Amino acid sequence: MKTSHIYPGAFSLNSYITVKGCSEAIDFYKKAFGATERGRLLMPDGKIGHAEIEIEGSLLMMADENIEWGNKSPQTIGGNPMSFGLYVKDADEAFQKAVDAGATVVMPIEDMFYGDRVGHVMDPFGYKWMITTHKEDVSFEEMQKRSDKMFSGQ
After folding, report:
1. Any idea what DSSP says for residue 69?
2. Which end of the chain is more exposed for a tag (fewer CB within 10 A), N or C?
């Protein structure tokens, strides 16, 4: 059998995050999003040098903050410009589960003009999650019409 050019269980493009408190983050993602831990590698000091979890069939790789290597968490750098988009079968249920696990509501869950039901939460480690269920297929043309209507206040 030939070895693939892509790591087993990964996709062409994957997320790799740096977390202050990686072990605690893994526990949170298990509670909030039903993550399954695939494995972790520990550094001599006990911090996580690399870990992998799976959420809804997608791989998320992570490691503890390591300032010496230039790996800084959102808490250390004072914020984070990125968001995770997580599609689930029931956005309302998953949103509430994340909040119950300790996430903070950024945007309450609602139906959006582009056909998704979406709510945003911030996890305790500085990452924003858009929890989404797709409800309606909408063309870009129709999305633009709906967007224009929304921004015009109609």
Report:
1. G
2. N
